[in-house]
């Protein structure tokens, strides 16, 4: 399937009212068509894995085409250099998280990228690193506590970031790891206690969010 064919189908599925509605949640209106994620996933299943097509869709600049690109790109073929080029175009939380959870956390270089990006200062790069940590805790069933634990420390460090998209991703990473197994839940709670004692308002917010989620599931 060619990118032009896919873009034509996406435009036919578009819903301008959905674009306006999503703007309330901080999602972009410019370049968006208003195609729901379930419909994108159905189209992705029809297309299958196609990294060349994914690159062409990303270059289109259409928001839903870029989301679709994160789903159809083959994690075995995707290079970190390619994905970092994509990351420079990211300007919304849904595309950032889609890139992390649909593609990056399934690549051979996911742990390396998660650690590197979580230390970076750019807002969407940092969030992508934290979202990848959450995705690895969720999707990598073979990962040991020892492998995941250093990533929790990076999420704790990021909890001091006052930017909303970053602090929420830091909480998400800690909470997702806590769901993994009891040892990591203890680590996440210990991090929450340290954060709660901080003078940072962002850190205290993350501490409260993590504690509430863990206690709710206890």
The quaternary structure here is single chain
What is the percentage of strand-forming residues? under 5%
Overall mean pLDDT stands at 95
- Uncertain segments of ≥5 residues (pLDDT<50)? none
Which structural class should the secondary elements be placed in? mainly alpha
Inertia-based shape: globular
- Which homologous superfamily in CATH is the superfamily of the largest domain? Leucine-rich Repeat Variant
Helical segment tally?
13
Number of strands: 0
CATH class of the largest domain: Mainly Alpha
Domain count, please report it.
Answer: 2
Characterization of the model:
With 218 residues, the protein is mainly alpha-helical. It has helices spanning 3-13, 16-22, 37-47, 51-59, 63-72, 80-87, 93-103, 110-118, 123-139, 145-158, 164-178, 182-196, 201-217. It folds into two domains: 1-74, no CATH class; 93-218, Alpha Horseshoe (Leucine-rich Repeat Variant), CATH 1.25.10. The chain contains 13 helices and no strands. The longest helix is centred in the middle third of the chain and has 17 residues, at 123-139. The mean pLDDT is 95.
Question: Which labels suit this protein?
Answer:
218 residues; Leucine-rich Repeat Variant; globular; 13 helices; mainly alpha; 2 domains
Please summarize what this structure is:
Helices cover 71% and strands 0% of the residues. The chain has 218 residues and is an all-alpha fold.
């Amino acid at each position: 399937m060619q990118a032009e064919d896919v873009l034509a189908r996406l435009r036919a599925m578009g819903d301008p009212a959905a674009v306006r509605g999503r703007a309330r949640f901080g999602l972009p209106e410019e370049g968006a068509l208003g195609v729901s994620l379930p419909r994108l996933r159905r189209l992705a299943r029809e297309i299958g894995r196609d990294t060349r097509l994914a690159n062409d869709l990303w270059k289109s600049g259409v928001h839903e085409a870029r989301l679709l690109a994160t789903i159809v790109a083959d994690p075995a073929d995707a290079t970190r250099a390619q994905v970092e080029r994509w990351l420079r175009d990211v300007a919304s939380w849904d595309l950032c998280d889609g890139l992390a959870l649909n593609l990056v956390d399934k690549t051979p270089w996911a742990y390396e990228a998660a650690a590197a990006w979580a230390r970076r200062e750019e807002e969407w790069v940092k969030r992508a690193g934290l979202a990848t940590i959450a995705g690895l805790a969720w999707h990598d069933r073979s990962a040991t506590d020892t492998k995941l634990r250093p990533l929790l420390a990076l999420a704790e460090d990021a909890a001091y970031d006052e930017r909303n998209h970053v602090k929420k991703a830091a909480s998400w990473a800690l909470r997702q790891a806590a769901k993994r197994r009891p040892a990591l839940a203890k680590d996440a709670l210990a991090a929450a206690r340290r954060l709660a004692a901080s003078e940072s308002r962002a850190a205290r917010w993350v501490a409260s969010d993590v504690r509430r989620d863990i206690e709710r599931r206890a």
